[in-house]
Amino acid sequence: MKILASVPGFSPGTFRFLARCRSLFVVLLLFPALVFLATGCSRSEPKADFVIINGAEPGTLDPAIVTVQADSRIVRALFEGLTRLDPKTAAAAPGLAERWEISPDGIHYTFYLRTNAVWSTGEPITTADVVYSWRRVLDPMTASEYAGQLFFVKNAEDFSSGKIKDPSLVGVKAIDPHTLQVELVGPTPFFLDLCAFQTLAVVPRRTIEKYGDRWIMARPLPTSGSYTLEYWRLLDKIRVRKNPLHWDATNVHNTLVDFLPGESAMTAMNLYQARQADILWDKNLIPANLMDVLGQQPDCHRYNYLGTFFMRFNILKKPFDDVRVRKAIAMAIDRKRIVERITRSGEQPATHFVPSGMSIYTSPEGYGYDPETARKLLAEAGFPGGKNFPSFQYLFKVGETDKQIAVELQAMWREQLGIQMEIRQAESKVYYTSLQAMDYDVGRSSWIGDYNDPNTFLDMFMSNNGNNYTGWANPKYDDLIREGNRQTDPKKREKILQQAETLLIRDDLPITPIYFYAGVLFYRPDEIEGIHFNLLDEHPISAIRRKGQMPPTEEPGTMRSN
């Protein structure tokens, strides 16, 4: 495949097609025709500054409903909020708001928008756009799974649930075109971080009202971020172009960036090694069985970040409605065996949900590997030695590492508990749809921190959170999370949130953690710079460039649209 990838005119989409071919005979038959097409009919378009292999085909680029990290990388380039992420630390930095003031009680925020903040189509961005964007997230018709990110705003939760019908009662007000006032329900130390999250990004009202659900395909598409959407070719690539009207355009270090979809680790690595791509930053797209060799290369970069691989139970289905069953299954997982045999990239076994590394929080311990106790619990639940335990399915998305983990879990539960699990593999979109619809028994899951605070992990299992997907609802847990987030004393807050996490990982156990992620990213450091490792695993593409490359000096008049 490396030979084919080097043929002039072959697009990454063509290469990925060939990589999927299982028959050499098919490749040989197609090769002459493909060479003709590549050399005679290739698109004449400028080369991207760099190409990123980005994971599965995006489900959406709408900031209000995007939930997948790979999709959010593109969304963050196109749409910006009041704050944005610092490329080095991933801390909240001024975005569309050039400054803000916070009241002494930590409840009232006044944001001042930049006077030079405009849409990529030239119209000014105003506080009315912010108010519209936030209300749209809260509107139940939008079906935003991240609407809870705004529940820290006064009356936002009641408006989203329908208890309040008047949107003007939500605590976000446009005082004038450049002054915005926000009232919170209580002190929220991470609120500025939330303002940098893609769900709170500013989106174009007129375009959305004109095109409805298909607004992201409008041309020209008004964007508020550093880039515009050049095009989105399904199963081929997404290309973004520098937005010359962005307030910080002079510090955007590239003009064109391509995002390639893909779910096969071997195909992704072949593309990278064949120089059809410059950056490979999705851990699932790195062949785990080759990490012993790949990890020694100078283009392999490892780092720590806030990410947990875990398993959800659908507690609305029998026998997983019995907490003893859930505990038994959790205690029969040899986490060390998984990270040493399968992932092999420095991951650490997880016995709690919130990853280590946050200076403001230490998690309580959950359950480790204890097969003897697991068998006792299963017997207490009425299934001694696994007798009469119904066969169930383990749902996971396409990926070699996830498949290997599924096979390993299947063996562990059969050997230690005598129960039978069926493997259910699904394409990414089907996988996420199944989770959302609660169409699963036990499911593979992962969570990457959205900001550096334990709440980014813990609040997703509140009863009304759109990312819960377990059927579990515990009012005590909800109250503890709310109480903890209103607490201004860091030590008292930590103890309250520890009580909540204990409910989650020991007492009720709607989930069980398996391991903490270790960051692995491939790029050639002698060619690419501007990638900085941080706890959120966020790398704004505006800061990335080829070494020796000066920031482009594209004039506003050169902006293109399709």
Q: How would you describe this structure to a colleague?
A:
- By secondary structure, the chain is of the alpha+beta class.
- It folds into 3 domains: 2-59 and 224-301 and 519-558, Periplasmic binding protein-like II (D-Maltodextrin-Binding Protein, domain 2); 72-212, Dipeptide-binding Protein, domain 1 (Alpha-Beta Complex); 306-518, Dipeptide-binding Protein, Domain 3 (Dipeptide-binding Protein, domain 3).
- The chain is 31% helix and 19% strand.
- It has 18 helices and 19 strands.
- It has helices at 2-5, 12-20, 24-40, 69-78, 127-138, 156-161, 191-195, 205-211, 265-273, 291-294, 323-331, 335-343, 371-380, 400-417, 428-436, 455-458, 475-486, 490-507; strands spanning 50-53, 83-85, 92-94, 97-102, 108-113, 172-176, 179-183, 227-233, 237-242, 256-260, 279-280, 300-313, 348-349, 392-397, 421-426, 442-448, 511-523, 528-529, 545-546.
- Strands 1, 8, 9, 10, 11, 12, 13, 14, 15, 16 and 17 form an 11-stranded mixed sheet that branches. A 4-stranded antiparallel sheet has the order 4-5-7-6, covered by helices on one side.
- The radius of gyration is 24 Å and the shape is globular.
- It starts with a helix and ends in a 16-residue tail after the last strand.
- 48% of the residues are buried.
